[in-house]
Design goal:
This protein is mostly beta strands and about 325 residues long. The chain is built from 2 helices and 26 strands.
């Protein structure tokens, strides 16, 4: 998904861990052009830039396509990251310059590795009446960020959380269930459903930091209340985290985790790099239709999303 902020700029991705529970409230961002679909973004913000290697989180829906226009994201580039698509409702058609043509379906993860460079498009299908889900990015460490692109798919089974609910683990391992998706750094990604008026104590890795992105109306994370769209951050050093659903309906939350990312990165528009000069080079190559990003079948050169202007100041990782 394209990081189309109205005013793109450098992003704080230092990922410094904190203790306790911090709540990040979402900001609304138009996505994908003139008739823009609106998404709620909780990563990155000025308050929280990364959770492990997770450096981007958009949450959208449930949106009737008749009102929103659906997802219409034309070909755009990526470098140095992986995209993770996870839907609750609807269908999205993915095409990329590596020749992959795949459907994004509810409860199934599609992970695209940009590596050295890739371009792709994302379009909701004609069969979609409601679009609802999350789009996530993972920063690649320096050792592999220039590797060839790749694509992985997995449909995880639902596993019980006692009598409290269930979980689908799409990346990593939790409560004895695991995903075969390969990542460059230790990560966790899962969808948790919690029954009304129940709670669960999750055993977690103490070297991980964790985030809980609430899709529904109410959740309590270690005695801290969340509202719809909020992201609760829990730093490393804990081995259990308590979730409680005080509401009369099922709560749904996306759990993101990982070891703190040990590298400074610069994230601008759809690129993850390390220096200002790299970002300038990526932008110039996209604008000149260089071979780095290839072409997406079914689209012409006029369909590509142009890169926004660079800011007048030098891009650098923002420290806290």
């Amino acid at each position: 998904m394209s990081n189309l902020d109205a005013e793109p700029g450098e992003i704080d991705c230092s990922g410094r861990p904190t203790t306790g529970v911090d709540v990040v409230t979402p900001r609304k961002v138009p996505l994908g052009g003139i008739r823009a679909m609106i998404v709620n973004r909780t990563l990155p913000t000025r308050d929280r830039s990364m959770i492990g290697a997770w450096c981007f989180a958009d949450h959208y829906g449930p949106d009737p396509v008749s009102d929103s226009g659906g997802m219409r994201v034309y070909p755009h580039p990526h470098t140095g990251l992986q995209t993770v698509s996870w839907l609750f409702e609807g269908e999205i058609e993915h095409r990329d310059s590596a020749g992959v043509h795949a459907m994004v379906l509810p409860g199934e993860i599609n992970l695209m590795s940009a590596g050295h460079g890739i371009s792709h498009s994302e379009m909701s299908t004609d069969a979609t009446t409601v679009l609802h889900g999350v789009q996530l990015w993972v920063a690649l460490p320096d050792a592999v960020r220039d590797d060839p692109h790749g694509f992985q798919h997995h449909a995880p089974e639902s596993a019980p959380l006692g009598d409290a609910g269930s979980v689908r683990v799409f990346i990593g391992e939790l409560v004895g269930t695991s995903s075969p998706i390969v990542t460059a750094t230790p990560l966790l990604g899962a969808e948790i459903l919690l029954e009304p008026h129940t709670e669960v104590v999750l055993p977690v890795r103490s070297d991980f930091e964790h985030g809980f992105l609430l899709d529904t109306e109410q959740l309590v994370v270690d005695d801290v209340d969340l509202a719809h769209g909020d992201l609760a951050y829990v730093g490393p050093g804990v081995s259990t985290i308590r979730l409680a659903n005080p509401s009369d309906t099922v709560a749904r939350v996306i759990l993101l985790g990982g070891t703190p990312f040990g590298e400074d990165i610069i994230m601008w528009w759809n690129f993850v790099g390390r220096t200002h000069e790299e970002i300038v080079e990526y932008r110039e190559e996209w604008e000149s239709a260089a071979t780095r990003f290839g072409t997406v079948d079914g689209w012409t050169s006029d369909d590509r999303i142009p890169a926004p202007p660079l800011p007048t100041s030098r891009l650098k990782p923002r420290k806290r």
